[in-house]
Amino acid sequence: MIKDYVATRFYLEIDDLDYTPFDALGGRGRMYQLFWDEMNSVIN
């Protein structure tokens, strides 16, 4: 039940990748490396 709630209401912006926990895994730069042109589609 909680998992479903979080999965349907989770919101992420590109700027969020600069903060914990994402920054520990490379943050925005790593996301660009992995997804490049598709990054905005993945975030949205």
Automatic annotation (TrEMBL):
Its EC number is 3.1.21.3. InterPro entries: EcoEI_R_C_dom. This is Type I restriction-modification system, restriction subunit R. GO terms for molecular function: DNA binding; type I site-specific deoxyribonuclease activity. Coiled coil: none annotated. It comes from Methanosarcina barkeri MS. GO terms for biological process: DNA modification. Keywords: Hydrolase. It comes from the Archaea. It is an enzyme of class 3 (hydrolase).
